[in-house]
Amino acid sequence: MNRPWILAAALWAAAAAAQGQSYALEVDGLACPFCAYGIEKQLRRVEGVEAIDVDVKAGRVVVTLAQGRALSEAQARKAIEDAGFTLRGFHTGASP
After folding, report:
1. How far is CA 31 from the centre of its chain?
2. Helices (H), 1-96
3. Could you please report the per-residue DSSP string of 1-25?
4. Domain boundaries defined on the chain
5. pTM of the predicted model, to two decimals?
6. What confidence tens digit (pLDDT) does each residue in 48-66 have?
7. Measured distance CA(76)–CA(87) in Å, rounded
8. Does domain 20-92 correspond to CATH entry 3.30.70.100?
9. Are 21 and 92 in contact (CB under 8 A)?
10. What distance in Å separates the CA atoms of residue 20 and residue 75, rounded to the nearest whole number?
């Protein structure tokens, strides 16, 4: 019997495994798109960063790194402070 849902589930699992680790950063002081740009610019300097999603209103930044790469709280704090903001929280396993 042909079961396309098995193939779909396998593809979904492979895609999930290929993604790297995500981190949620809570940032104080975000107020505008220019703020978001400054944070993105600093985080892009961290080796392995693949995606950055900034929610200015919530003061939340989700950073996704390449498979096998990690972001330490110290690295995140430095990038956020270099952009002129304060890191309030650091959480692993965030969803973008």
Report:
1. 19
2. 4-18, 33-43, 73-82
3. ---HHHHHHHHHHHHHHHS--EEEE
4. 20-92
5. 0.77
6. 999 999 999 999 999 999 9
7. 8
8. yes
9. yes
10. 17
